[in-house]
Specification:
Keywords: ATP-binding, Ligase, Nucleotide-binding, Transferase, Tricarboxylic acid cycle. The protein has 897 residues and is α/β, with parallel strands linked by helices. It has 28 helices and 38 strands. The strands form six sheets. The chain has an eight-stranded mixed β-sheet, with helices on both faces. The chain has a seven-stranded mixed β-sheet with strand order 3-4-2-1-5-6-7, sandwiched between helices. The radius of gyration is 32 Å and the shape is globular.
Length: 897
């Protein structure tokens, strides 16, 4: 698993610091001081061959001479010594190391590669190099050179920048915000963002995860981990380099539109991560998510003593997609009874500038009791009439009483005290009430909670591997692309493009190729006979944008006009592009759909995330208008609709004035088809349909171009080589007959299977649960079951088996690959009342078959020695069985594939 041995690094029982120096101002001395100041409770040792003691702490001259085997080794030694120190630590039994040292280099032959090889010999995990270190308040460990140690709390921070991590600690210290862990990952030699997302997603102390990202190395692994984490808790990211987009020249419109930052945006959207624009917003998001759970809706009630600031908050709420809560009649009456007659009578609830602590308390109690809102924002503008600190104390008292009465799902309460003293912010923070400098920040904080709930709901939807609404002619399409590649071409010609679109049932204007004017006239006459006028377009592999050379002539009505236009197009193109290969002109019928919208749809190739689907407003000025949205495939109709809705042009798809609405889902279905095309034929490296005309009759592609090239496998494992998100693997669905004619249906697990897992566990005895989980299990939390059901199929797979007669879930088998995708760890659980009927054998064979198809080299697992039935089955399947060298009541089983 990618979390392999991470608990040893992030919650160690013993630590050794190697390279500490007595020199003040050195990194090693700073880390030594921080470890001591944090009062780490486990064993601690100091290694330095040059000094017998440092600041009163005795040293040893090598890791081997420590009196204990350190779980974690923190390295601040010179870069040239790191690989040797890791080898020494591995021999001593260390589980991993934090490499704070910089200067190890990158790539083949580097010091970093030597360090990685040394670690792999012993199964050690590495954090860094070139990092700030780690801070784990829960175990009183500050193995970093940060100026401060955060208090314990419920936020995890994963940062590619040590400075950002240190800044977050300083901010948190001022706001009484605590952390479950802070990890600076540096150069990510081994442990990366995805590994830590996996770890903190399953950490019960962590309620939300914050990310600072500069670049992603393994997009499929990141997407898998991010989607799994975001399903169970909020994940928030700030990404640097937002404006460094579109630097490279792009051959297609979609390639130009798919700038690097726009693709990251699409990836975060698909992963269910909340993106914020800067550190201030990240801090505010941390303030919210570290203290509150998401509300059931997006209706916010606002309580204030200043009408103007209340209206500003309502305006911002509407802009961000929230809803101003309506006061229920009962609440209205209750407020009338306790407020002066001049109160606002609506939301925002303005209780007038002379409001004192008692008035705030009574109004807040009424709003908290009102079922018409999902959260309450309390704001105070300081006056000379009522003391702001007394009002803050009254508000915290009401909130604490309310939470005590509503322990399960209390409403979120947020606060803004304009211009307040720091002491008031501390009162609110200590009461667990997130508080902000402005109404804008507070409303954004509330909407972060809303967005998290929405992305969790969206992540529960699983796109199918093949949309059922259409059946493309994949073989015909693949032959077109293969023939062009064999011809050493990087573009399909217009006739091939039309055939490709036909294969995927995407309506396109009939297109004919003409080598000269007379051939163009012949095709034009056939079009004239059908009552249409003619369009001519230059046909050249080297001229991508035809209008740049005057290569498009519209609305031709006679043979003479066609003849003349053909001659002029060819002459003009040869003059402007003398080196271009020109094969003639395209002849098309002139399409007149007066009320159609011009759209652009296409595929682009991103170096990090692979294929990206692009949608937006089309036409020749597409880059200038820049009204576009991106999504990572695969897509289903719901995901395609969401992509469309993120653009301004989506509003034009609805009916307005005398213009009918575009045919429902006609555009979305084309996006689904393009995503499927990209999955089937990864050699398609770029595709534009511009414009796609859309109206009440449907859609029609007027012009299209396709870039092709050899497949570059960007991601490990099976599935489309160019997809960062793997489709739901429906090809693994099976109907199987077990013993005595018992028929079961087996398929990959889905997120919506969680209730079925809970139901199945009711039929598993405590004894069998202990055999499976190595401990008595009385309750199973949502987070625990989510670990089973909410997979991304990139690094993990689980199959669920159903009794075909009763449709009850009867068994689950799963496998999770290690961080380098070489071996996988399996686990299996059956209903106790159905054991002995051959289901376990069938599921084990299936998971072995799956592991082989993924290219894994081995399957392993841990089995209690008393679980003789499982051990016997493992031996029958060819597993090697050995007693664990440390825990003798456990057997390690391994099958080489």
């Amino acid at each position: 698993m990618s979390t392999y041995r991470l608990r040893n690094l992030l919650s160690p029982h013993s630590v050794a610091l190697v390279g500490a120096s007595p020199r003040h101002g050195s990194v090693g001395r700073a880390i030594l001081n921080n470890i001591r100041k944090a009062q780490f409770k486990g064993e601690f040792g100091l290694v330095n061959p040059r000094y017998p003691e440092i600041d009163g702490v005795a040293t040893v001259d090598s890791i081997a001479k420590l009196s204990f085997a350190p779980e974690l080794v923190v390295l601040t030694a010179p870069a040239r010594t790191i690989a040797g120190l890791i080898d020494e630590a591995g021999r001593r039994g260390a589980a991993g190391a934090v490499i704070v040292s910089a200067g190890l280099g990158h790539g083949s032959g580097s010091l970093a590669e030597a360090a990685e090889r040394a670690a792999q010999k012993y199964g050690m995990r590495l954090i860094g190099p070139n990092c700030l270190g780690i801070m784990m308040p829960g175990v009183s460990l500050n193995a970093s050179f940060s100026a401060h140690m955060p208090v314990a709390g419920h936020l995890a921070l994963i940062s590619q920048s040590g400075a950002i991590a240190a800044g977050m600690v300083d901010w948190a210290a001022q706001r009484s915000v605590g952390f479950s862990g802070i990890v600076s990952i540096g150069d990510q030699l081994d442990v990366d963002i995805a590994d830590l997302l996996d770890y903190f997603a399953l950490d019960e102390k962590t309620h939300a995860i914050l990310l600072y990202i500069e670049a992603i190395k393994d997009a499929r692994k990141f997407m898998s981990a991010a989607r799994a984490a975001a399903r169970v808790k909020p994940v928030v990211v700030v990404k640097s380099g937002r404006m460094a987009q579109g630097a490279r020249a792009a051959a297609t419109h979609t390639g130009a539109l798919a700038g690097a930052d726009a693709v990251y945006d699409a990836a975060f959207q698909r992963a269910g991560i909340l993106r914020v624009s800067d550190l201030r917003e990240l801090f505010d998001c941390a303030e919210t998510l570290g203290r509150l759970k998401s509300p059931p809706g997006k209706r916010l009630a606002i309580l204030t003593n200043g009408g103007g600031i209340g209206v500003l908050a309502i305006d911002r709420l509407a802009e961000l997609g929230g809803i101003s809560a309506q006061l229920s009649p009962e609440t209205h009456e209750r407020l009338d009874a306790v407020l002066p007659p001049t109160w606002s009578k609506s939301n925002p609830v303005d209780i007038i500038g002379d409001a004192d602590a008692e008035r705030y308390a009574l109004a807040l109690e009424a709003l908290l009791a009102d079922a018409n809102n999902g959260a309450v924002l309390v704001m105070n503008v300081q006056t000379a009439i009522a003391r702001a600190d007394e009002i803050a104390a009254a508000v915290t008292g009401v909130v604490q009483k309310y939470r005590a009465e509503r322990r399960r799902l209390p409403k979120p309460v947020l606060a803004v005290w304009v211009g307040a003293e720091p002491s008031i912010g501390k009162v609110l923070s200590d009461a667990g009430i997130p508080n902000y400098l402005t109404e804008d920040d507070a409303v954004r904080g509330f909407m972060h909670l809303v967005r998290h709930r929405e992305v969790v709901e969206a992540l529960a939807q699983v796109p199918p591997a093949m949309p059922s609404e259409f059946a493309p002619d994949v073989d015909a399409a693949r032959k077109i692309v293969t023939a062009a590649l064999d011809d050493d071409r990087s573009w399909l010609d217009p006739i091939e493009v039309k055939q490709l679109l036909d294969a995927y049932d995407i309506a396109a204007v009939p297109t004919f190729a003409a080598a000269d004017a007379e051939e163009a006239v012949a095709h034009a006459n056939a079009i004239f006979a059908k009552g249409s006028t003619v369009v001519l377009k230059i046909m050249s592999r080297d001229i991508v944008h035809k209008s740049d050379v005057g290569g498009v002539v519209l609305n031709l009505t006679s043979a003479d006009a066609v003849r003349k236009a053909t001659s002029e197009i060819l002459t003009r193109a040869r003059s402007l592009r003398p080196k271009a290969r020109i094969s003639g002109v395209m002849v098309q019928a002139m399409v007149v759909r007066a009320k159609a919208r011009e759209l652009i749809l296409g595929l682009a190739d991103d170096p990090t995330f692979g294929t990206v689907v692009v949608f937006g407003r089309g036409g020749t000025a597409v880059e200038i208008i820049n009204d576009k949205a991106l999504a990572l495939p695969p897509l289903d109709l719901q995901l395609a609709r969401s992509l469309i809705e993120r653009t301004r042009v989506s509003r034009l798809l609805h009916a307005y004035r005398d213009v009918p609405a575009v045919k429902q889902d006609a555009v979305a279905m084309v996006l689904v088809k393009l995503a499927q095309m990209a999955a089937d034929i990864p050699e398609i490296r770029g595709l534009d349909i511009n414009p796609l005309l859309a109206d009440e009759a449907g859609v029609l592609a007027v012009d299209a171009r396709v870039v092709i090239g050899q497949v570059e496998r960007k991601f490990r494992g099976s599935g489309p080589a160019n997809f960062a998100v793997r489709p739901y693997p429906s090809q693994w669905q099976r109907h199987i007959e077990v013993k005595d004619g018992w028929r079961v249906f087996v398929r990959p697990i889905r997120p919506e299977d969680e209730p079925l897992i809970h139901e199945m566990l009711k039929h598993v005895t405590m004894h069998d649960l202990r055999l499976r989980f190595f401990a008595p299990m009385k309750e199973f939390s949502h987070e625990f079951i989510a670990r089973l059901t909410q997979l991304d199929y990139a690094r993990a797979m689980a199959f669920v088996a159903f009794d075909e007669a009763t449709n009850e879930l009867v068994g689950v088998v799963r496998i999770h690959s290690d961080s380098i995708y070489e071996s996988g760890e399996y686990a299996i659980l059956l209903r106790s009342d159905l054991k002995g009927r051959g289901l376990g054998w069938v599921l084990m064979q299936l998971i072995i078959e799956y592991a082989k198809s993924e290219g894994l080299k081995a399957i392993s697992g841990d089995v209690l020695a008393e679980n003789t039935v499982m051990l016997a089955m493992c031996r029958s399947l060819g597993f090697e069985v050995k007693t664990d060298p440390v825990e003798h009541d456990i057997c390690n089983v391994r099958l080489a594939l």
